[in-house]
Each structure stands twice: as structure tokens, then as C-alpha cells.
Design a protein that fits this description.
Blueprint lengths: L1 E2 H6 L9 E4 L2 E4 L4 H4 L16 H4 L17 H17 L1 E7 L5
Parallel strand pairs: 1-4
Antiparallel strand pairs: 2-3, 3-4
């Protein structure tokens, strides 16, 4: 299990590794530093569970970078699950985020 505090430290600054969470699953995206590092377009995802932003595209706002999917259409849930599957295929799985928003 990974705490939110531990996840937040893996932001490329406090710790050189880059972790993000989606649907409460934490992945090490360090190998994608050009996308998730300080100059990357997806840097807002690092160090937090930004599940909602995978649908809304609000990568740099607190409203978007939240695990809360309330009010999103059913199709968005499936699309976000597909994003989580992508991370599971392409990046190292670290663990579950605890306490979990989804369980």
C-alpha cells in the first residue's frame, strides 16, 4: 500500500522517481520523464491520483486532478479504466493507494 503522502514525494523533486495514480493504482512513470517530468505536458499527474483529469483533460487544476469521478458519464468510466490498463501494460506497478477512494 502507498499512502498519499508517499505518493506526493515521488514528484521528481523530493524524490527523483515519478509516480502517479489512476483509479487508486500507483505506477512508476519515471521512464516516461519527457512526458511526466518538469517539462512534460502531463507533469500535473505526478505525485497524486488525478483520475478525473483522464476524462476532463484538466491536467493542471485541483478540480481535475482528483480521484473523484462523480457525475462523469458511464462511458468516461470505461475510458478511464482503459487508461489504467495502459499504465499497467507500459509502466511498473507500485501498489494500491491507501486509504483508497475506490475501495
Amino acid at each position: 500500500l502507498v499512502t498519499a503522502e508517499e505518493l506526493s514525494r515521488h514528484d521528481g523533486v523530493q524524490d527523483p522517481t515519478l509516480w502517479l495514480a489512476i483509479l487508486g493504482e500507483v505506477f512508476d512513470v519515471t521512464k516516461g520523464e519527457r512526458h511526466y517530468g518538469a517539462e512534460g505536458g502531463y507533469k500535473g499527474f505526478v505525485g497524486k491520483d488525478g483520475t478525473r483529469a483522464f476524462h476532463t483533460g484538466h491536467f493542471n487544476t485541483p478540480e481535475g486532478l482528483t480521484p473523484d469521478m462523480s457525475g462523469l458519464p458511464d462511458a468516461a468510466h470505461l475510458a478511464i479504466r482503459e487508461w489504467a490498463d495502459f499504465y499497467g501494460r507500459d509502466y511498473a506497478y507500485v501498489g494500491k493507494l491507501a486509504p483508497g477512494f475506490y475501495y
